[in-house]
Design goal:
The protein is of the alpha/beta class and about 250 residues long. The chain folds into 2 domains: about 5-110, Tetrapyrrole methylase, N-terminal domain (Cobalt-precorrin-4 Transmethylase, domain 1); about 115-235, Methyltransferase, Cobalt-precorrin-4 Transmethylase, Domain 2 (2-Layer Sandwich), CATH 3.30.950. Helices cover about 30% and strands about 25% of the residues. It contains 8 helices and 13 strands. The protein has helices at about 20-25, 35-40, 60-70, 90-95, 115-120, 140-155, 170-180, 205-210, and strands at about 5-10, 30-35, 50-55, 75-80, 105-110, 120-125, 130-135, 155-160, 190-195, 200-205, 220-225, 230, 235. The structure holds S-adenosyl-L-homocysteine. S-adenosyl-L-homocysteine (SAH) binds near residues 87 and 220.
């Protein structure tokens, strides 16, 4: 029988935004592995579990620990924020898993920041969209620039993950400058900081204004397409339904 390791998307942070499948898998685990920030977000419900964390950039060590402990017979879950298959650990687990043939993976989906952030802002991704990470840790910046430019030309709603960090303080500004070569200054945009966590902050603004904003690494940014507007303060991308206006006179 194979050792099963759960790879769990825990959503943005709030337990209400975790799936029942994720909660049950964690309940049934003996060991929960993850990045410290996310382990800390797990509530009292899991306080009796064994935890193991590694800092950022020690992802391989974190993943290998899961395989080693699973082989020893522990019931192991690896947690990621949002969804584990969206800028998460799911692919690295499959790559490393080739070295541990007695283990198998169970990927449990979670609500990615795109969905939880969109729900707070209104309905900004209600048409074709793309997601681009501004982190150039594992992707060359030239490729990121090209994707931004082509996404803007294709009139996609653009969602930015990893918009900034201490080392990359001006990346959002650089990204806006590239998009502003194609998109007008007044294009409606928005961002949400700390979705599903303490200190949630929401902002709706124009692309020109977004360029001047300081956002941190716990922020997801939305750039509307040519049909995106603001309705009652909410960012809304039209699906294109013909609306019949009733004459109530
Ligand atoms: N697997 C995660 C994404 C990890 S990449 C997911 O599916 O959501 C990390 C980026 O995700 C952050 O830089 C930010 O852009 C976004 N993000 C993740 N959690 C967030 C949260 N709670 N609030 C706002 N943005 C978040």
């Amino acid at each position: 029988m194979k050792h099963t390791i759960n790879v769990i998307g825990m959503g943005p942070g709030d337990e209400n935004l975790m799936t029942k499948e994720a909660l049950e898998a964690l309940d049934n685990s003996e060991l929960i592995v993850g990045y410290g920030v996310y382990l800390n977000l797990l509530g009292d419900r899991f306080k009796d579990k064994e935890f193991y964390q590694t800092p950022m950039r020690q992802e391989e060590k974190r993943c290998r620990y899961c395989f080693e402990k699973a082989i020893e017979g522990k019931r192991v879950s690896l947690i990621c924020s949002g969804d584990a298959g969206i800028y998460g650990m799911a692919s690295l687990m499959y790559e490393l898993g080739r070295e541990y043939p007695s283990c198998e993976l169970k990927i449990i989906p979670g609500i990615t920041a795109l969905c939880s952030g969109a729900a707070i802002l209104g309905a900004p991704v209600n048409h074709d969209f793309c997601v681009i990470s501004l982190s150039d840790l594992l992707t060359p910046w030239e490729k990121i620039e090209k994707r931004l430019k082509l996404a803007a030309e294709a009139d996609l709603v653009i969602v930015l993950y990893n918009p900034s960090s201490h080392r990359r303080a001006d990346y959002l500004k650089r990204a806006c400058d590239i998009m502003l070569e194609v998109i007008e200054q007044k294009r409606p945009c928005g961002y949400v900081k700390n979705i599903g966590r303490e200190g949630t902050e929401i902002k709706v603004c124009t692309l020109g204004e977004l360029r001047e904003k300081n956002v941190n690494m716990f922020t997801t940014v939305f750039i509307g397409n040519s049909t995106t507007g603001i309705i009652d303060g909410k960012l809304v991308t039209q699906r294109g339904y013909p609306i019949e206006v009733e004459d109530r006179a």
